[in-house]
From TrEMBL:
It holds the Pfam family PilZ. This is PilZ domain-containing protein. It comes from Sphingomonas aracearum. Residues 1-11, 18-30 have a biased composition (Basic and acidic residues). Residues 31-115 form the PilZ domain. Residues 1-38 are annotated as: Disordered. GO terms for molecular function: cyclic-di-GMP binding. It comes from the Bacteria.
């Protein structure tokens, strides 16, 4: 058994390009982290260049981002949402106005809760959440 067939048989998550080459693009890829559905306004960018965006889902490892100017987003960017800095992320894929990003450092549970609950004003009850900027 070759390495690529072993990956296919084991359903090991692989990079998008390799997934397509193996003929698995139409199969659902297993996720390592639980995704949380959100609709959270955000800013993405670097330096003095910032773009308005919305987080559509988020996990400790990454997020799905909607941005009208997605094609203008830099490959490595900063992400801010729920009045806190979520850190640096790398764009893994782009499709139209959507971006898949991977955080350089995993987000902790209090930060995920803050992003998930922020619109309801509940995040003030989360004592361990990162401080507001």
């Amino acid at each position: 058994m070759s390495l690529s067939s072993a990956k296919r048989d084991a359903k090991v998550p692989v990079a998008t390009g390799e997934y397509r080459r193996q003929g698995l693009a139409d199969e659902p890829r297993p996720r390592r982290e639980k995704r949380r559905k959100v609709f959270q306004p955000a800013r993405i960018g670097s330096g003095s260049e910032w773009l308005r965006a919305h987080l559509l889902d988020i996990s400790s490892a990454g997020a799905l981002v909607y941005c009208e100017e997605a094609q203008a987003a830099p490959a490595r960017l900063l992400v801010e949402a729920a009045e806190c800095d979520l850190g640096h992320a790398t764009i893994v894929w782009r499709r139209g106005n959507r971006l898949g990003i991977r955080f350089e450092r995993p987000l902790d549970e209090p930060t995920l809760q803050r992003v998930e609950l922020y619109p309801d004003g509940i995040c003030a009850q989360l004592g361990d959440a990162p401080p507001l900027r």
